[in-house]
Amino acid sequence: MAVSDLSPALRASASSRPHPKARPGYGKRSVPEQCPPPEADFTLLPERERHIAGYVDALPEGAAMDIKSLAKSQPLYGQMAVGSALRALGVAGHLRHVRCLSGEGDQVRWVTRTFWSRVAHDNEWWHAFLAAEERRSAPMPTAKAVDPPEPAPAPAPAPVPASGPGPEPVYVPTQPTAPVVPQQRTAQPQSRPGLSPAFAALARLGRTDSRLALSAADCAALEQAAGEWFARGVDADYLTHALTAGLPASVDSPFGFVRRRLHDKLPPRLPATPPTPQATPVRRLMVECTECGAPGRPEAFRDGLCRPCRESGPVV
Predict the structure, then answer these.
(1) Beta-carbon contacts of residue 254 (< 8 Å; ≥ 6 apart)
(2) Using CA atoms, how far apart are residues 306 and 27, in angstroms rounded to an integer?
(3) pTM (2 d.p.)
(4) Fewer CB within 10 Å: N-end or C-end of the chain?
(5) Is 256 inside a domain boundary?
(6) How confident is the model at residue 3, as a pLDDT?
Protein backbone atom coordinates (compact mmCIF):
# COMPACT_ATOMS: atom_id res chain seq x y z
CA MET A 1 0.00 0.00 0.00
CA ALA A 2 1.35 3.40 -0.91
CA VAL A 3 2.29 5.76 1.90
CA SER A 4 0.09 8.52 0.43
CA ASP A 5 -2.97 6.33 0.94
CA LEU A 6 -2.53 6.59 4.72
CA SER A 7 -2.11 10.35 4.87
CA PRO A 8 -4.76 12.25 6.87
CA ALA A 9 -7.62 13.81 4.95
CA LEU A 10 -7.40 17.50 4.21
CA ARG A 11 -9.50 19.54 6.59
CA ALA A 12 -10.25 22.07 3.85
CA SER A 13 -9.24 22.41 0.21
CA ALA A 14 -7.50 25.45 -1.13
CA SER A 15 -9.86 27.19 -3.49
CA SER A 16 -10.48 30.71 -4.73
CA ARG A 17 -14.23 30.09 -4.63
CA PRO A 18 -15.99 30.25 -1.24
CA HIS A 19 -18.34 27.35 -0.73
CA PRO A 20 -21.98 28.45 -1.20
CA LYS A 21 -24.64 28.06 1.44
CA ALA A 22 -27.75 26.07 0.56
CA ARG A 23 -31.25 27.51 0.57
CA PRO A 24 -32.99 27.63 3.98
CA GLY A 25 -33.90 24.09 5.04
CA TYR A 26 -31.48 22.39 2.61
CA GLY A 27 -27.81 21.48 2.79
CA LYS A 28 -25.49 19.68 5.20
CA ARG A 29 -26.70 18.37 8.57
CA SER A 30 -24.20 16.73 10.92
CA VAL A 31 -25.43 13.86 13.05
CA PRO A 32 -25.34 14.65 16.79
CA GLU A 33 -22.74 13.58 19.33
CA GLN A 34 -19.76 13.44 16.98
CA CYS A 35 -16.32 13.19 18.49
CA PRO A 36 -13.73 15.88 17.64
CA PRO A 37 -11.83 15.18 14.40
CA PRO A 38 -8.70 13.10 15.06
CA GLU A 39 -5.42 13.59 13.26
CA ALA A 40 -5.95 10.62 10.92
CA ASP A 41 -9.51 10.96 9.68
CA PHE A 42 -10.80 8.77 6.80
CA THR A 43 -7.42 7.02 6.38
CA LEU A 44 -9.05 3.76 5.25
CA LEU A 45 -10.73 5.44 2.28
CA PRO A 46 -9.15 5.79 -1.19
CA GLU A 47 -7.39 9.06 -1.95
CA ARG A 48 -10.26 10.70 -3.86
CA GLU A 49 -12.92 9.77 -1.29
CA ARG A 50 -10.57 10.75 1.55
CA HIS A 51 -10.11 14.21 0.05
CA ILE A 52 -13.86 14.79 -0.57
CA ALA A 53 -14.70 13.47 2.91
CA GLY A 54 -12.23 15.85 4.54
CA TYR A 55 -13.62 18.75 2.55
CA VAL A 56 -17.25 17.94 3.38
CA ASP A 57 -16.42 17.39 7.05
CA ALA A 58 -14.95 20.90 7.28
CA LEU A 59 -18.03 22.56 5.75
CA PRO A 60 -20.41 24.41 8.11
CA GLU A 61 -23.97 23.40 8.79
CA GLY A 62 -26.32 24.28 5.94
CA ALA A 63 -23.59 24.28 3.26
CA ALA A 64 -24.65 23.29 -0.25
CA MET A 65 -24.09 19.57 -0.85
CA ASP A 66 -25.04 19.24 -4.52
CA ILE A 67 -22.43 17.86 -6.90
CA LYS A 68 -22.06 21.07 -8.89
CA SER A 69 -21.31 23.22 -5.80
CA LEU A 70 -18.80 20.71 -4.41
CA ALA A 71 -16.99 20.47 -7.76
CA LYS A 72 -16.76 24.25 -8.15
CA SER A 73 -15.50 24.90 -4.62
CA GLN A 74 -12.59 22.44 -4.54
CA PRO A 75 -10.00 22.42 -7.34
CA LEU A 76 -8.98 18.74 -7.61
CA TYR A 77 -12.06 16.87 -8.88
CA GLY A 78 -14.85 17.53 -11.37
CA GLN A 79 -18.54 16.73 -11.18
CA MET A 80 -18.30 13.08 -12.26
CA ALA A 81 -15.52 12.39 -9.74
CA VAL A 82 -17.39 14.17 -6.95
CA GLY A 83 -20.58 12.23 -7.73
CA SER A 84 -18.71 8.91 -7.63
CA ALA A 85 -17.01 9.93 -4.37
CA LEU A 86 -20.34 10.81 -2.72
CA ARG A 87 -21.72 7.44 -3.81
CA ALA A 88 -18.74 5.67 -2.24
CA LEU A 89 -19.06 7.70 0.97
CA GLY A 90 -22.72 6.72 1.19
CA VAL A 91 -21.83 3.04 0.76
CA ALA A 92 -19.11 3.43 3.41
CA GLY A 93 -21.72 4.78 5.85
CA HIS A 94 -20.71 8.44 6.12
CA LEU A 95 -23.75 10.16 4.55
CA ARG A 96 -27.39 9.82 3.56
CA HIS A 97 -29.40 12.06 1.22
CA VAL A 98 -32.83 12.63 2.78
CA ARG A 99 -35.95 14.43 1.60
CA CYS A 100 -37.80 16.03 4.55
CA LEU A 101 -41.21 17.66 4.78
CA SER A 102 -40.65 21.13 6.21
CA GLY A 103 -43.24 23.62 7.45
CA GLU A 104 -46.69 23.43 8.99
CA GLY A 105 -50.27 23.72 7.76
CA ASP A 106 -50.56 24.94 4.18
CA GLN A 107 -46.95 26.20 4.13
CA VAL A 108 -45.17 22.86 3.69
CA ARG A 109 -42.54 21.84 1.13
CA TRP A 110 -40.06 19.06 0.53
CA VAL A 111 -36.42 19.96 1.18
CA THR A 112 -33.34 17.82 0.49
CA ARG A 113 -30.77 17.47 3.25
CA THR A 114 -27.52 15.52 3.47
CA PHE A 115 -26.89 14.00 6.89
CA TRP A 116 -23.16 13.65 7.45
CA SER A 117 -21.32 11.48 9.97
CA ARG A 118 -17.59 11.64 10.55
CA VAL A 119 -17.77 8.05 11.83
CA ALA A 120 -19.00 5.41 9.38
CA HIS A 121 -22.22 3.63 10.45
CA ASP A 122 -24.01 0.55 9.19
CA ASN A 123 -27.52 0.41 7.71
CA GLU A 124 -29.20 -0.48 11.02
CA TRP A 125 -27.76 2.63 12.70
CA TRP A 126 -28.91 4.88 9.87
CA HIS A 127 -32.41 3.35 9.90
CA ALA A 128 -32.73 4.01 13.63
CA PHE A 129 -31.34 7.55 13.29
CA LEU A 130 -33.66 8.47 10.41
CA ALA A 131 -36.68 7.02 12.24
CA ALA A 132 -35.85 9.19 15.26
CA GLU A 133 -35.32 12.19 12.96
CA GLU A 134 -38.77 11.68 11.45
CA ARG A 135 -40.33 11.58 14.93
CA ARG A 136 -38.53 14.79 15.87
CA SER A 137 -39.79 16.54 12.72
CA ALA A 138 -43.43 15.58 13.34
CA PRO A 139 -45.58 18.58 14.34
CA MET A 140 -46.42 18.86 18.02
CA PRO A 141 -50.16 18.86 18.88
CA THR A 142 -51.25 22.38 19.57
CA ALA A 143 -52.93 23.03 22.92
CA LYS A 144 -56.46 24.35 22.82
CA ALA A 145 -56.48 28.04 23.51
CA VAL A 146 -58.43 29.08 26.61
CA ASP A 147 -60.09 32.48 26.56
CA PRO A 148 -59.02 34.68 29.48
CA PRO A 149 -61.76 35.45 31.99
CA GLU A 150 -63.59 38.67 31.38
CA PRO A 151 -62.67 41.38 33.89
CA ALA A 152 -65.31 42.36 36.43
CA PRO A 153 -67.05 45.64 35.67
CA ALA A 154 -65.74 48.60 37.61
CA PRO A 155 -68.10 49.95 40.27
CA ALA A 156 -70.04 53.05 39.27
CA PRO A 157 -68.99 56.26 41.08
CA ALA A 158 -71.28 57.43 43.87
CA PRO A 159 -73.57 60.33 42.89
CA VAL A 160 -72.59 63.73 44.24
CA PRO A 161 -75.52 65.64 45.73
CA ALA A 162 -76.22 68.89 43.95
CA SER A 163 -75.84 72.03 46.11
CA GLY A 164 -78.04 74.13 43.85
CA PRO A 165 -79.23 74.56 40.32
CA GLY A 166 -76.26 74.38 38.01
CA PRO A 167 -75.80 75.58 34.43
CA GLU A 168 -77.64 73.68 31.79
CA PRO A 169 -75.40 71.33 29.77
CA VAL A 170 -74.34 72.58 26.38
CA TYR A 171 -74.85 70.13 23.55
CA VAL A 172 -71.72 69.73 21.39
CA PRO A 173 -72.34 67.75 18.23
CA THR A 174 -69.80 64.97 17.71
CA GLN A 175 -67.90 64.71 14.47
CA PRO A 176 -68.80 61.60 12.48
CA THR A 177 -65.92 59.17 12.31
CA ALA A 178 -64.61 58.28 8.89
CA PRO A 179 -65.40 54.71 7.88
CA VAL A 180 -62.45 52.35 8.08
CA VAL A 181 -61.61 51.09 4.61
CA PRO A 182 -59.82 47.72 4.59
CA GLN A 183 -56.46 47.66 2.87
CA GLN A 184 -56.85 46.58 -0.72
CA ARG A 185 -54.73 43.69 -1.93
CA THR A 186 -52.68 44.28 -4.98
CA ALA A 187 -53.66 42.10 -7.85
CA GLN A 188 -51.26 39.27 -8.53
CA PRO A 189 -49.84 39.09 -12.03
CA GLN A 190 -51.71 36.58 -14.10
CA SER A 191 -49.91 33.90 -16.06
CA ARG A 192 -50.19 33.82 -19.79
CA PRO A 193 -53.52 32.38 -20.92
CA GLY A 194 -53.35 28.84 -22.22
CA LEU A 195 -50.03 27.99 -20.49
CA SER A 196 -50.59 24.72 -18.62
CA PRO A 197 -48.62 23.82 -15.46
CA ALA A 198 -47.04 20.90 -17.35
CA PHE A 199 -45.80 23.16 -20.18
CA ALA A 200 -44.47 25.72 -17.69
CA ALA A 201 -42.59 23.05 -15.71
CA LEU A 202 -40.98 21.70 -18.89
CA ALA A 203 -40.02 25.20 -20.03
CA ARG A 204 -38.25 25.86 -16.71
CA LEU A 205 -36.10 22.72 -16.90
CA GLY A 206 -33.40 24.53 -18.90
CA ARG A 207 -33.12 27.20 -16.21
CA THR A 208 -32.80 24.57 -13.50
CA ASP A 209 -30.14 22.64 -15.43
CA SER A 210 -28.88 23.75 -18.85
CA ARG A 211 -28.39 20.13 -19.91
CA LEU A 212 -32.19 19.76 -20.17
CA ALA A 213 -32.97 22.94 -22.13
CA LEU A 214 -36.05 22.29 -24.28
CA SER A 215 -37.45 24.29 -27.16
CA ALA A 216 -41.06 25.46 -27.34
CA ALA A 217 -41.83 22.66 -29.81
CA ASP A 218 -40.24 20.11 -27.45
CA CYS A 219 -42.36 21.37 -24.53
CA ALA A 220 -45.52 21.16 -26.63
CA ALA A 221 -44.70 17.60 -27.70
CA LEU A 222 -44.04 16.49 -24.10
CA GLU A 223 -46.85 18.50 -22.49
CA GLN A 224 -49.35 15.63 -22.47
CA ALA A 225 -46.86 13.20 -20.88
CA ALA A 226 -45.95 15.74 -18.19
CA GLY A 227 -49.63 16.52 -17.64
CA GLU A 228 -50.17 12.89 -16.64
CA TRP A 229 -47.81 13.49 -13.68
CA PHE A 230 -49.92 16.43 -12.51
CA ALA A 231 -53.05 14.32 -12.93
CA ARG A 232 -51.54 11.85 -10.44
CA GLY A 233 -51.13 14.47 -7.72
CA VAL A 234 -47.55 15.75 -8.05
CA ASP A 235 -46.54 19.40 -8.31
CA ALA A 236 -44.00 21.23 -10.46
CA ASP A 237 -41.19 20.94 -7.85
CA TYR A 238 -41.62 17.16 -7.66
CA LEU A 239 -41.61 16.82 -11.46
CA THR A 240 -38.53 19.04 -11.83
CA HIS A 241 -36.58 17.11 -9.18
CA ALA A 242 -37.49 13.74 -10.71
CA LEU A 243 -36.33 14.85 -14.16
CA THR A 244 -33.08 16.56 -13.08
CA ALA A 245 -31.86 14.20 -10.35
CA GLY A 246 -28.74 12.17 -11.15
CA LEU A 247 -28.06 13.62 -14.59
CA PRO A 248 -25.06 12.34 -16.55
CA ALA A 249 -22.20 14.70 -17.33
CA SER A 250 -23.66 15.49 -20.75
CA VAL A 251 -27.07 14.95 -22.36
CA ASP A 252 -26.92 14.57 -26.14
CA SER A 253 -30.69 14.77 -26.68
CA PRO A 254 -32.59 16.66 -23.96
CA PHE A 255 -35.90 15.87 -25.68
CA GLY A 256 -35.28 12.12 -25.77
CA PHE A 257 -33.85 12.09 -22.25
CA VAL A 258 -36.86 13.92 -20.75
CA ARG A 259 -39.33 11.80 -22.73
CA ARG A 260 -37.73 8.61 -21.42
CA ARG A 261 -37.77 9.83 -17.81
CA LEU A 262 -41.37 10.98 -18.08
CA HIS A 263 -42.27 7.42 -19.07
CA ASP A 264 -39.92 5.47 -16.76
CA LYS A 265 -40.42 7.52 -13.57
CA LEU A 266 -44.19 8.07 -13.89
CA PRO A 267 -45.58 7.90 -10.31
CA PRO A 268 -48.39 5.47 -9.52
CA ARG A 269 -51.98 6.65 -9.56
CA LEU A 270 -53.38 6.90 -6.06
CA PRO A 271 -56.76 5.31 -5.36
CA ALA A 272 -59.72 7.66 -5.19
CA THR A 273 -60.71 6.40 -1.73
CA PRO A 274 -58.36 5.21 1.01
CA PRO A 275 -58.25 1.42 1.43
CA THR A 276 -58.93 1.71 5.17
CA PRO A 277 -61.08 4.16 7.08
CA GLN A 278 -58.19 5.02 9.38
CA ALA A 279 -56.16 8.03 8.28
CA THR A 280 -52.57 6.98 7.67
CA PRO A 281 -49.94 9.37 9.03
CA VAL A 282 -48.13 11.46 6.47
CA ARG A 283 -44.49 10.48 6.09
CA ARG A 284 -42.29 13.49 6.72
CA LEU A 285 -38.99 11.88 5.71
CA MET A 286 -37.86 9.85 2.69
CA VAL A 287 -34.37 8.70 1.77
CA GLU A 288 -32.96 9.67 -1.63
CA CYS A 289 -30.71 7.34 -3.57
CA THR A 290 -27.14 8.69 -3.53
CA GLU A 291 -26.72 7.65 -7.17
CA CYS A 292 -29.96 8.56 -8.99
CA GLY A 293 -31.85 10.65 -6.43
CA ALA A 294 -34.99 8.46 -6.42
CA PRO A 295 -36.94 8.88 -3.13
CA GLY A 296 -38.38 6.07 -1.04
CA ARG A 297 -38.82 4.58 2.41
CA PRO A 298 -35.59 4.20 4.45
CA GLU A 299 -35.98 0.42 4.69
CA ALA A 300 -35.98 0.15 0.86
CA PHE A 301 -32.39 1.43 0.68
CA ARG A 302 -29.13 -0.27 1.50
CA ASP A 303 -25.87 1.66 1.76
CA GLY A 304 -27.80 4.74 0.61
CA LEU A 305 -28.68 3.15 -2.76
CA CYS A 306 -31.94 1.95 -4.30
CA ARG A 307 -32.13 -1.59 -5.67
CA PRO A 308 -31.60 -0.69 -9.37
CA CYS A 309 -28.46 1.31 -8.56
CA ARG A 310 -27.13 -1.46 -6.30
CA GLU A 311 -27.61 -4.01 -9.07
CA SER A 312 -26.01 -1.80 -11.73
CA GLY A 313 -22.72 -1.67 -9.83
CA PRO A 314 -20.51 1.28 -8.86
CA VAL A 315 -19.69 4.07 -11.28
CA VAL A 316 -15.95 4.89 -11.23
Answers:
(1) 205, 206, 211, 212, 213, 214, 218
(2) 21
(3) 0.51
(4) N
(5) yes
(6) 39
- Enumerate helices (H) and strands (E) in the chain, giving the number of each: 10, 5
| CA proximity to 290, closest of 86, 9, 23 | 86
Task: Give the number of other CB atoms < 10 A from CB of residue 268.
Answer: 7
Is 228 part of a structural domain of the chain?
Answer: yes
CA distance 265 to 43: 39
Same domain assignment for residues 212 and 96: no
| Interval 264-292: pLDDT, tens | 988 888 776 655 655 555 667 888 888 88
Q: Are 41 and 117 in contact (CB under 8 A)?
A: no
**148 within some domain:** no
Residue that terminates a domain, selected from 88, 103, 137: 137
Q: Are residues 19 and 107 in the same domain?
A: yes
- DSSP H or E stretch at residue 121: none
Widest pairwise Cα distance in the chain: 116
CB 257 within 8 A of CB 205: no
Looking at the fold, whether 211 and 85 belong to one and the same domain comes out as no
- The one-letter code for the residue type at 182 is P
Per-residue buried b or exposed e for 55-84, using 16+ beta carbons within 10 Å of the residue's own CB: bbbebeebbbbbbebbbbbbebbebebbbb
For the four alpha carbons of 295, 301, 306 and 307, in that order, the dihedral sign comes to negative
Rounded to 5 degrees, φ, ψ at 97 are -90, 125
Higher pLDDT, 157 or 248: 248
Q: Please give the tally of structural domains in the chain.
A: 2
Pick the last residue of a domain from 137, 164, 183: 137
